[in-house]
TrEMBL record:
Residues 604-619 have a biased composition (Basic and acidic residues). It comes from Lentzea atacamensis. The lineage of its organism: Bacteria, Bacillati, Actinomycetota, Actinomycetes, Pseudonocardiales. This is Type I restriction enzyme R subunit. PROSITE patterns: HELICASE_ATP_BIND_1. Residues 579-590 have a biased composition (Acidic residues).
Amino acid sequence: MTEDETCRALVIPALTGSGWASDQIRPQFRINNGRLTPTPKRHVDGDPLVADYVLEYAPDVPIGVVEAKRYRADANDGVEQARRYAAKLGLSFAYATNGREIVEIDYSGAAPTIREIDRFPSPEELWSRYLADQQADSIIGRELLAAPYDHTLRNSDNTAKRPRYYQRVAVARTLAAIAAGQKRILLVLATGTGKTMVALQTVAKLYRSQWISGRKPRVLYLSDRSMLVDDPKDKYFLPVFGPDDVHKISGEPVRGRKIYFALYQALEKGDEEELFRRYEPEYFDLVIVDECHRGSARDNSQWRRVLEHFSPATQVGLTATPISKKEADTFDYFGEPVYTYSLADGIEDGFLAPYRVRRVRLNVDMEGYQTEPGQRDKYGNEIPEGVYGPKDFERVMVILERTEAAAQYVIDYLRSTAEDGRHGKTIVFCEDNNHAARMRTAVFNAASAEVQTHHNYVVRITDADGPHGRALLDDFRKDDSDEPVIAVTSKLLNTGIDLPAVRNIVLFRRIGSMPEFKQTIGRGTRLCPEIGKGSFDIIDFVEATRLFNDPGFDGPPLRVLRDTADEQGHLIGSAPETPEGDEVDPESVAEPEAAYDQTDGGSFDERLADDRVHDPDEVDRIQSRGRRYVVNGVHVYKWGERRYQLDTDGRTMRLVTIQQWVHDRVLELDLAPDKLRSQWAVAKSRRELMAILHAADVEAEELPEEFGSPDVDPIDLLLNVAWGLPLVSREERLYRFLHEHRDFLDSFQHQARQVLEEMLLKFAEHGSPQLKPETLGVRPFTEIGSVVELANRFGGAKPLHEAIDELSKRLLEAT
């Protein structure tokens, strides 16, 4: 019997014989979407993880997994698969069977076991074991975990928005902790993995149970930003629970509702008494704290007082980036997380977008900027003599050309990666609001062609931009909007905002905090199928991505590219990162120190962020008085490029040279040198080879520049880097061809020979990729005649194609 026949004849009857109903046996259960592998501009879908059967006690409540093998196979052949599926689904019970034998893998209790059993356990038996394993075998625990999920919300195709497997695990762990009487509960889920869905489904299950005897529970959803309160309220909870039960607290204490949303700031207001104190400490049964790694994590935080006031309630903290340091410790308040779903998990499952990293260093960052004795800045302030480096830039020393060079690079990159004429949405993170204003101006000037068509092509969105900035943010968030394309900010967009259409994250601010780094990178991790986004790019001007090498980071980039550019800032090439010198500098991951004096008026940065200061020149003058010096006329350009490659373990990153990268990709073609050369000579097969190399992030036409051999043809570079064959310049190939194959040219009539001779000149100028019929559609061929007319010189299209391929073979075989 085949596996399918074994399942129909033996496995399903064995399950139903143990009491499992047909709707409790979920066949071909798709656990994840399969890892997305980025290509230079797009991505490739991986195979999803699919379990043969998942056993559910109630709808969407899995308690066991079954891996089936064909009748004649050994049941033990399915044990490892079953264990993998169970681990993913957060289950302690898995089964492998061939229809004759059943192997049970049991991770519950103190001593996990693998053993053969005579029959599958019944639903009630396995349910009791599951509850005991979850430590939720009380009456309320059984009710909470079996309560139905809510399927009110709809996807864009009008199907029910069902929770993903890890969201169900998070909900189950949370409810089990609640049933066990745990008062503070922490959930850690990577940015973009749907913490709001977990919160909604947790509340829905509590709402439909008898957790609070005689009434529905009262819930308070807390955060510190309006968007983090309004989006969950409007997009998730209102459609499910309705306006009669959902309310946002503002101004006055309102009672009689079930689910309340509030900002910490709003709860602290009040003429005589703070608003939160006008609710009794026991009023709320559940408090959900979104982004709990921020203000509420600090012992001395004013916001902590709100949580402590409602301490009788069960409090659930949600975050992607818990923090643990002396003055702020998420774990100290909430305890260890009951469930963690990391960025690496999300990428592996295909629920988050993987990414590429391009590190771009500017000459002044590498060499430093040396001031002269007595030198004065743009505003006449004398600059202390010395060498200023990356730690000083934008904080103490502002080099206007540094920002302009970075802006030019970003524009060149967006133009080179445009699809159907559309540039990918991009966030640029700058040091502060003033730096963001200069970056916006520099990008605006560099993108004059784009700005003519889209006036809001580039905008600044910071806390100082007020309601207008929020309106621009609403437009930027839309996946179908043509503008803004580039949003320049400082820190406003680095956390808690859903931006699925973002394809590029530009780091132009030094980041010393791992939570901030993860949150910043998280702005690009959300998938956006509507625009075909399955990966994104990080452009790093400040070496912030060295934090990828820190043990505290859990999601490695797929590769790092180091780009080179000319003195005007135009992109001219890319190459993989070289391995040496990439250790994490302990100073680079330390919290940055304040660069300015503190005054009674607040910190210097706080005074800069004051909404009353809008004029850029006035801000620059304030900066000069605050020990920040502004200079121009500095020659700034970019150099160097590096690339990361995933090692064989699929997680850690290995830095490789461009030569090693291309060497490995060519050998993967599994072609002998002569076979590679002969296939390259034919236009059709060359196109196929170039597509394969392109998918592996090798741009054949760019190799001469990347290898520093602009006079050598790509095929010779490929043969040299893979097998060490000698390099032959294009000029030398052309010279030998003209001496050894003159009879080939003379075999054609004058008009046809003219076409082939022009094709040889194209080869000499641009290389073998131009040896194709499509080249006839460009100058100088268009000045000779149309493609049809040129083909007629050879007797038709087929003889023309054959002549070009034969020319290519003879040209490339000359050694």
